[in-house]
Write a structure and sequence with these properties.
The complex is a heterodimer of chains A (334) and B (309).
Chain A (H helix, E strand, L loop, with lengths): L7 E5 L4 H11 L6 E6 L15 E4 L6 H9 L3 E4 L10 H21 L5 E7 L26 H19 L4 E7 L1 E3 L6 H6 L4 E4 L5 E2 L1 E3 H13 L4 E5 L5 E2 H7 L4 E4 L1 H14 L7 H9 L6 H7 L7 H11 L5 H7 L2
Parallel strand pairs in A: 1-2, 1-4, 2-3, 4-5, 5-6, 6-11, 7-10, 8-13
Antiparallel strand pairs in A: 9-12
Helix pairs in contact in A: 1-6, 2-3, 3-4
Chain B lengths: L6 H6 L22 H17 L12 H19 L3 E3 L9 E5 L7 H13 L4 E5 L1 H5 L3 H7 L3 E2 L2 H9 L3 E4 L4 H4 L16 H9 L3 E7 L9 E2 L1 H7 L5 E2 L19 E4 L16 H26 L5
Parallel strand pairs in B: 1-9, 2-5, 2-6, 3-4, 3-5
Antiparallel strand pairs in B: 6-9, 7-8
The chains are: A alpha/beta (334), B alpha/beta (309).
Chain lengths: 334, 309
């Protein structure tokens, strides 16, 4: 039996952008018999991605309903894309979705005899951001100071549960993907909302190194992990690094450096009075110290390079959002 | 570092002082414009690239253009006119990856800046220093240090840089060296825990010993206000004859005469990479490097003569 052939694929988080795009890509693959998408809310028009022959099942992965679905449909491959990073949803609910949802899902996977493969979307946020860590993280590096709050901590816990499952079901092919920030024309994330502020506040005295992965590359990595066998933990990011100041200048966004404490206060006020999402502590740390991950292992394993570098991913995102370069055009006329 | 406070200033003045931006040295027979016009044009081009973010940084945050156009010229002024640095043995710096091991002194690590200028101007190499984590916690200093190509002192970063064939610099004495009292000048402190030797062994690169004479006299530290240091989270709070007595004016370094000397590269070829896991050998090599630097330090000190002439 060719181990790689995925017949029945279950995609979680299918009503959100990345999940919808992955489901859309997988359903176009004739080698896959069925693609089942699950989420707590029905897929709306908001993602703008057609799901094709994907069968949508509205089930909360925090309930045992997910186990019934996996057993009855004979799911052999689970693509878990349910990690919620948004800070606009109340924190307690996010944690519930991320951690408890994953626990239920993994329990169901462990029980099912048909299961062969698990692909988990994690986040490079598991490395945290601090001034005391190496400049570049490889998959083997443990951060000096792990993340203590927010979705970053959820991602750490999710990875722990996945490792637990790997110990108990050593026959499964498990791929864990630590994604850098996903950017692209269709992405809506705390970071893209941050960039769209009328005047972007930055942390005074710090200029973090950032990395991005283009949505197309992200989807391609997830597709390959699903249809081919690549067990292990991999960092996913576009090549190269962009400084925050550099990114803001390239997008022509006006920005003003403010001291870190007032930045989090501004975020709180924005959340309370202006309906903005605020700055989560882990976003703030990232905007202060930045983070760079080493993607050599992924390139080696897939013999493939992301089409978009961090720079190109950002440029594509900026162009799609109509960010101009007022300063450049002004200077160009000189 | 006080030199850095002038950065914004320098950026504002771009239009006025654009000529040293590397254009003056170019062959000007082909271009009919006057040097001033070309200077202004290249200055504006530089300004446009900076304002539109049109430049590259590496994974460590090193920004070569920013470094060579803004940071180094400021340091170079100190190097050439204030400290009048004399360089010796620069031919000992090999091509490719190597680890430069130098003594550290002067309360404020201006020796690191001067070493960067020396290697940039006279060996055409970009020195990548390994700094204390305190540097990266301090606003402005941390990101300027990264933009200048330096990074945190840790095994992983050092190995990554050496694997890319970079010239990496370390000050194994760390804060013990840079913050030692004036009375102990030119006496090397303990060389950390020998981590740098392990790094060189694993990367298979030579160690280039380096002696820096002159930095000891720039801020003669005669006392240390420990409670204040603890309050500010600093490793020491120095008292010099001029600081804090003269306020900010006390921050002007004394114009000592400097000499920087590179010794012959110490190849570690007779050891293999596994030796890095043999603490006894690592200690031996560490002591050997330390004696070498101390010896070079005494010789160079004798050759320099008086401290301020």
């Amino acid at each position: 039996m060719p181990a790689a052939a995925a017949r029945v694929v279950l995609v979680t988080g299918v009503s959100r952008f990345l999940g919808a795009r992955v489901a859309n890509t997988l359903q176009a693959d004739p080698g896959i018999e069925r693609v089942i998408g699950v989420d707590t809310v029905p897929p709306g028009a908001s993602t703008g991605v057609p799901l094709g022959r994907t069968e949508f099942v509205r089930v909360d992965i925090r309930t045992p309903g997910i186990a019934n679905l996996i057993a009855s449909a004979g799911v052999d491959t689970v693509v878990h894309l349910h990690l919620v990073t948004s800070s606009s949803v109340p924190r307690a609910k996010v944690k519930e979705l991320n951690v408890i949802g994953t626990m239920q899902l993994l329990a169901a996977c462990q029980r099912s005899p048909d299961m062969r493969k698990l692909v988990v979307r994690s986040s490079a946020a598991v490395y945290g951001s601090s001034p005391m860590d190496p400049a570049v993280f490889t998959e083997r590096d443990e951060p000096i100071e792990g993340p203590k709050s927010g979705y970053a901590k959820d991602a750490v816990e999710v990875e722990e549960y996945v490792r637990g499952l790997m110990r108990r079901r050593s026959d499964l092919t498990v791929s864990v993907l630590r994604f850098a920030n996903v950017l692209g024309p269709g992405v809506d994330s705390p970071f893209t909302r941050y960039l769209r502020l009328p005047v972007v506040p930055t942390v005074l005295g710090f200029d973090p190194r950032l990395q991005f992965v283009h949505e197309d590359d992200g989807v391609e990595v997830l597709r390959r992990m699903t249809v081919e066998d690549h067990p292990g933990c991999f960092n996913v990011a576009g090549d190269g690094v962009l400084l925050l100041s550099q990114a803001l200048r390239r997008a022509g966004r006006p920005y003003v450096p403010v001291p870190a404490p007032s930045l989090s206060m501004l975020g709180d006020m924005g959340r309370r009075f202006a309906g903005l999402s605020g700055f989560s502590p882990e976003l703030l740390r990232w905007l202060t110290y930045g983070r760079v991950i080493d993607t050599a292992a992924l390139a080696d394993e897939l013999s493939w390079h992301p089409k978009y570098s961090s720079e190109a991913a950002f440029a594509d995102f900026a162009a799609a959002h109509g960010f101009g370069r007022p300063l450049t055009s002004l200077l160009g006329r000189l | 570092m006080n030199a850095h406070h002038h950065d914004d200033h320098a950026a504002d003045d771009q239009d006025a002082q654009v000529i040293p931006l590397g254009t003056a040295r170019r062959d000007d027979s082909a271009d009919e414009r006057s040097p001033l016009e070309r200077g202004i044009a290249s200055g504006l081009a530089f300004l446009r690239r900076r304002l539109s973010g049109d430049y590259d940084v590496d994974e460590f945050g090193f920004d070569p253009e920013f470094n060579s156009t803004l940071l180094l010229p400021l340091a170079r002024a100190l190097y050439e006119h204030w400290f009048r640095v004399e360089l010796a043995g620069v031919e000992n710096v090999p091509d490719g990856g190597a680890l430069v091991v130098a003594n550290h002194s002067g309360v404020i690590p201006l020796d690191a800046l001067m070493l960067s200028v020396a290697l940039h101007d006279h060996a055409d190499r970009q020195l990548r220093l390994l700094g204390a984590d305190l540097v990266y916690q301090i606003p402005v200093l941390g990101h300027l240090s990264r933009k200048a190509g330096h990074t945190l002192a840790c095994q992983a970063d050092a190995a990554r840089l050496l694997a890319k064939g970079e010239l990496v610099g370390v000050f194994p004495e760390g804060f013990k060296g840079v913050g030692k009292p004036f009375a102990e000048r030119y006496k090397l402190q303990r060389f950390g825990r020998g981590g740098f030797v392990g790094t060189a062994l694993r990367a298979g690169v030579p160690i280039v010993p380096c002696a820096i004479v002159g930095a000891e006299e720039i801020y003669p530290k005669i006392a240390d206000v420990r409670p204040l240091a603890r309050l500010l989270g600093l490793p020491y709070f120095p008292v010099t004859p001029t600081f804090p007595l003269l306020g900010p004016a006390g921050l002007v370094p004394l114009p000592s005469k400097w000499m920087i000397r590179f010794g012959e590269p110490m190849t570690l070829d007779e050891y293999d990479a596994d030796t890095a896991d043999d603490p006894m050998t690592v200690f031996d090599i560490t002591d050997h490097v330390r004696e070498n630097v101390q010896q070079m330090l005494y010789e160079t000190l004798l050759r320099r003569g008086p401290a301020f002439l």
